[in-house]
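quick q for whoever's on today - can somebody do inverse folding on this one?? i tried earlier but teh output was garbage lol. tokens:
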């Protein structure tokens, strides 16, 4: 019997216009490989340790929102 591959849940951070989702723990925004990992918008469903740590940091610093525009820009540039 095959055990199903357990995929890690990243915290969704950025979505580009094509619907590719980047994770909070990625140093530079890039699309999550959905064959290897999944993403969620619910902090409590996140299983990625790096994302969890980043969520905790962000809660202290309240820093998630202000970064969004710049990183989305970087994600788009990276695709060209
Ligand atoms: Zn992650």
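ok took a stab at it. sequence:
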């Amino acid at each position: 019997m095959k055990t199903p591959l357990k995929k890690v849940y990243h915290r969704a951070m950025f979505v580009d216009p094509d619907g590719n989702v980047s994770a909070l723990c990625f140093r530079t925004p890039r699309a999550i490989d959905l064959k290897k990992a999944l993403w969620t918008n619910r902090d409590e469903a996140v299983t990625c340790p790096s994302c969890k740590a980043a969520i905790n940091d962000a809660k202290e610093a309240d820093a998630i929102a202000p970064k969004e525009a710049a990183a989305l820009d970087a994600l788009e540039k990276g695709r060209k």
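fwiw Residues 8-78 form one domain. also The two ends are 43 Å apart (CA to CA). so keep that in mind when u check it
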